[in-house]
Design a protein that fits this description.
about 130 residues; eight-stranded mixed beta sheet; four-stranded antiparallel beta sheet; 12 strands
Length: about 130
């Protein structure tokens, strides 16, 4: 099973930026994509963005398109989520997850269906003045 360790997050004012990082361990063949989803209090989980490990294709939820950018560093097994123009409604706990052929949680992000088999510990992002 892929292990994922997250870093980043915190408190930022509206319009500000944050970058989340996700370090994946395990064999690259164990997962086909890395994605981010979030959960705000009282709301359902929402898929935010994901990136294919095979060709680097990226996908975004409409709510973050144009503001968030997902990227990867294959040499370091890292995936990043750059979040710009943050809004109070982006406040949530963010999780990075690995797309697995034995999924526990299935989400649609944009036009991409990803089945998460494991995910990180979560990191709080708070957007507030």
């Amino acid at each position: 099973q892929v292990q994922l360790v997250q870093s980043g997050g915190g408190l930022v004012q509206p319009g500000g930026s944050l970058r989340l990082s996700c370090a994946a361990s395990g064999y690259a063949s164990d997962y086909y994509a890395i994605g981010w989803f979030r959960q705000a209090p009282g709301k359902e989980r929402e898929g935010v963005s994901c990136i294919s490990t095979s060709d680097g294709s990226t996908y975004y939820a409409d709510s973050v398109k144009g503001r968030f950018t997902i990227s990867r560093d294959n040499a370091k097994n890292m995936v990043y989520l750059q979040m710009d123009s943050l809004k109070p409604e982006d406040t949530a706990v963010y999780y990075c997850g690995a797309g697995s052929r034995d999924p526990k949680l299935v989400m649609t992000i944009g036009t991409y269906v990803i089945g998460f088999g494991s995910w990180g510990q979560g990191t709080q992002v708070t957007v507030s003045s």
